Amino acid sequence: MAARTLTPPDTRVAVGVDLGGTHVRAALVDARGTIRARAEERTEATAGPDRVLAQIKRLTDAILADAPEEVVGIGVSTPGPVDTIAGVAKNIPTLAGFVGYPLRAELQKQYPFPVILENDGIAAAVGEWRFGAGRGLDNIVYVTISTGIGGGVIADGRVLRGRMGMAGHIGHMSIAPDGALCPCGGRGCFEAYGSGTALAARARMAAVGCGDTVLGRDGGGIDGRSVFAAARDGDRLANQLVDEEAEILGRGITSLLHIFSPDIVVVGGGLSEEFDRLQPGLRSYVATFAMPAFRDVNVVKAALGQNSGLVGSAALALLADAAREER
Amino acid sequence: MAARTLTPPDTRVAVGVDLGGTHVRAALVDARGTIRARAEERTEATAGPDRVLAQIKRLTDAILADAPEEVVGIGVSTPGPVDTIAGVAKNIPTLAGFVGYPLRAELQKQYPFPVILENDGIAAAVGEWRFGAGRGLDNIVYVTISTGIGGGVIADGRVLRGRMGMAGHIGHMSIAPDGALCPCGGRGCFEAYGSGTALAARARMAAVGCGDTVLGRDGGGIDGRSVFAAARDGDRLANQLVDEEAEILGRGITSLLHIFSPDIVVVGGGLSEEFDRLQPGLRSYVATFAMPAFRDVNVVKAALGQNSGLVGSAALALLADAAREER
């Protein structure tokens, strides 16, 4: 007997753009989340909006050159805070000239299909929700840990946006009174303790007073990567630093469990490449200090790696198209 | 010319129940949020679920005795964490015997109309959203400060529930490393520093070493209320303690601004009676340490006072009824 209903294969595709402080990346993504084509350039971060928009156009033209399918839209992920309701970049610290800039309207002039604008943490959360580690779940907290800490939240099966679409700046919850200065101007932020930048700074301080470590020996620079590398080689100080990092992340994530009650926490960003080393300490913190009803929530590594935001911004364009069809 | 459409006056009413650790309160609430009748008793907190459910029935019978209108449902606000999706109380610390207890099903047996169950912080947030200080806004963070700290969130025009409906336990975000023990078992929680209980404990400690204060003089006990009273009388130590309290609350609320991007923060609970004294310090913290895009968000006192949860739980029953009608 034949199946009663046959859904036709979804042949829609969308463009995802990940506009970052160092790279602009564009991809053609299909309805299964597969990247069909991609292109990237170093961001002309100091050149001003016109040049950056021209970069985006150049990259998307390249990937659209031989796109046979119906392109339903383009999603652009941008560093925040950006008012994605009004479509205006308020003041992007990593990109010169994006101050009160009507980013969505200017992008829209370039394309015949709808433009979606999204804060980068939220776009990455959407990527993991639709096609990554949070697939099929309704409540997801995505945490990205790299030079800073950002995030995005899916709650009750919907993207959490908040006023001006600026929800999810979880790197700027205060975790220490009168604490370390944060790039945001605040003190004691999660980002100021848990980011890769903060880990490297702690490592440089600690290495100065420690004779018994390979960190910084031979005048080599110390960054997050070198701390993990030294830890793998058995360096005691490096392992202490990594254990401390896991504890800081565990403490921040435990707070997020209580605040959002997610089904899962997905960890992305550069530091997530070292997730296997961080996970035991992180899990131990959650198991000890989360309230009992929250202890069994899984904390996992992002499945899409560095593509969460790229795929997520395309997914937002596909979702918007599906919503238009429903109306 | 007559108006084209005349909406009939909404004559629906619902019952709200606020089940707390010290009092059970019930009210008949109309579609404008007005309390038409109310009743309360001290909670038989150690007597077990049967007795507490009998209390609720007795109170609701009393207020329904002469309710002429159509009662569309009952909303029950309960201390958390309660799995409001499954309707099961996991383990309510303040009420004996509510462990794995099918609270919604047992309540439903008592009533001919639908029962809605909600965590107390969320119910109070809904009260302020529909009928209080957050009326007409889509993004609200409600913070209740009394013996503990709780909360509830409205985001993008919807109630934020999360896994098992347990979102909004904002009192248990960690604000200090290796910090003060919290009743939840954690360390350094917002509740362990910012609650009325924590303020009183700090005051007792400080008064011991201070000759120049009225706090605790004549062997009198020190609680939150007496600290504010002494501050009003010009007591230096009391004013320092209150300023510190405002700073702690400001720090927690600044984190919540970044995390949720609300249109407004509404402060309820016992300590909100002293909101006017706390507001300048609180506002100053936000204005200094929130990221610029978040600084203009208002922090206000709950408009419904101690009735936020009572009215909010009835509002949830009214909303559920409206949703049923739409289907």
UniProtKB/TrEMBL annotation, chains A, B:
Keyword terms: Kinase, Transferase
SUPFAM superfamilies: Actin-like ATPase domain
Keyword presence, Iron-sulfur: no
Top EC category: transferase
Keyword Nucleus recorded: no
InterPro entries associated with the record: ATPase_NBD, ROK, ROK_cs
A matching Pfam family: ROK
Domain of life: Bacteria
GO molecular-function terms, A-Z: glucokinase activity
Entry EC number(s): 2.7.1.2
Family to which the UniProt record says this protein belongs: Belongs to the ROK (NagC/XylR) family.
Name assigned to this protein: Glucokinase
Organism: Mycoplana azooxidifex
